[in-house]
Amino acid sequence: MADPKGFMTTPREEYPRRPVEERVRDWNEVYVPGALLPIISRQADRCMDCGVPFCHDACPLGNLIPEWNDLVSREDWRAASDRLHATNNFPEFTGRLCPAPCEAGCVLAINQPAVTIKNVEVAIADRAWADGFTQPRPPDRLSGRTVAVIGSGPAGLAAAQQLTRAGHTVAVYERADRIGGLLRYGIPAFKMEKRHLDRRLEQMRAEGTKFRTSTAIGRDLGAAELRARYDAVVLAVGATAWRELDVPGRELAGIHQAMEYLPLADRVCEGDLEVSPLSAAGKHVVIVGGGDTGADCLGTAVREGAASVTQLDIYPQPEAERDEDVEPWPTYPKIYRLSAAHEEARDLETAPAADADARLFAASTLHFAGDADGHVRSLHLVEVDERRRPVPGSGRTLPADLVLLALGFSGPDRHDGLIDQLGLALDARGTITRDTDFATNVPKVYVAGDAARGQSLIVWAIAEGRSVAAAVDRALAGTSQLQAPIGPYDRPMTA
């Protein structure tokens, strides 16, 4: 604890964002370059080094947060990097993309603004890359065992890196043309520039991990054939089966799933396309769904030059402060949060009819209406009460040339045939079942991440990847020194 009074004398100060008018004209990250380092040591001083640091429990990775806060406050960046990477393979990802349940569990957050844990994390990660602390760590010797990892999102990449470092020969199979899963084609570049992903992949290649792109297991390569080639198979295929909206007019042109829309914008940033075929330019856009994916669509549509953008959220507008009776500390509360995309929509007034920023809360879609050519032109909605019952007389109509459905995901996609070819058991939710060792009902086949857990956060995906790696290593070698931060049935803290 570098400054015993830091939490009393220093106010919370967050990573400053670039002006809205500037950042919506490009796809670069929204933060002011270099603006974090001058403030981050003071912010790390606010950590109280609690006797029982609940930030550990709130983070499924078990990040050693008080330790690296203290090291940052002393500007010992190498030691801070070592402590951070001891529990997290990809802190530059989580520091940008995780909603920081650790901050909700910060003891200081009982009656003050929490320590800026997420900002400290990303500062350490970026400094580690800048100062050369993230050198490849190839194994001293090979085990002679082989592992296939199917899926290259955060769970698959974490599992692959851990198993490679343990000495196994690992190949990662990805059905897209580039590695990264939703980190590549799903997360907009203004939230995380792809250079962060690319340099981590280069580190993994230097350690010995092999990557196989444009290979859909079950379609391009039979699942049984793959299983016969390897000593173990890890499924990290995610939960990409999107939820539908079954209302009249859904068949109209111009209504698309968010994950049909977002990857095309990422491909424009990658240079594959000059303009997205689903570009929002000049269109009235309505996003159905109030979560992070909907916010990603919002920021993307604003940058593409939409005429208007409105986001519908079926839940009522949250309060600004935690309700201690319903969601007591240290649980992660549902409160009103203003993401960078919502800040942009608010300042640019993209949705004049919205309740706040670009969002209409407690809003449920009734039906779509189209023109003579069968293209959507309007969305009809109604306000709902706490039990999602329509409020009489509250109906309204929004212009809509492009509708994006961001309603979440129900489980892994079955179109490639992987699940059926292997004969994997599924639970009632449609996710893959597993035992306490992350093993499926099929010998030698393990599963991690959203494919088994269901739709979750990036920090849980990385924790799953690290844990399944320990289970596979133990099965192949008889014992394992790899860290397993969570079990397959662990869940976030709730009241």
Describe the structure.
Keywords: Amino-acid biosynthesis, Glutamate biosynthesis, Iron, Iron-sulfur, Metal-binding, Oxidoreductase. Pathway: Amino-acid biosynthesis. It comes from Streptomyces olivochromogenes. InterPro entries: 4Fe4S_Fe-S-bd, DPD_II, FAD/NAD-bd_sf, FAD/NAD-binding_dom, Glut_synth_ssu1, Glutamate_Synthase, Helical_ferredxn. Residues 38-69 form the 4Fe-4S ferredoxin-type domain. By secondary structure, the protein is an alpha/beta fold. It folds into 3 domains: 6-131, Orthogonal Bundle (Fumarate Reductase Iron-sulfur Protein, Chain B, domain 2); 146-240 and 410-477, FAD/NAD(P)-binding domain, CATH 3.50.50; 244-407, FAD/NAD(P)-binding domain, CATH 3.50.50. It has 18 helices and 15 strands. The chain has helices at 6-9, 20-23, 37-44, 54-58, 65-73, 77-85, 91-97, 101-104, 117-130, 154-165, 194-207, 223-229, 258-270, 292-304, 340-348, 418-422, 450-453, 458-477; strands at 146-150, 169-173, 210-212, 232-235, 241-242, 255-257, 284-288, 308-313, 359-361, 363-370, 376-383, 396-399, 402-405, 409-411, 445-447. It has a 5-stranded parallel beta sheet, sandwiched between helices. Strand 2, helix 11 (194-207) and strand 3 form a beta-alpha-beta unit. It starts with 5 loop residues before the first helix and ends in an 18-residue tail after the last helix. The model has no long low-confidence stretch (mean pLDDT 96).
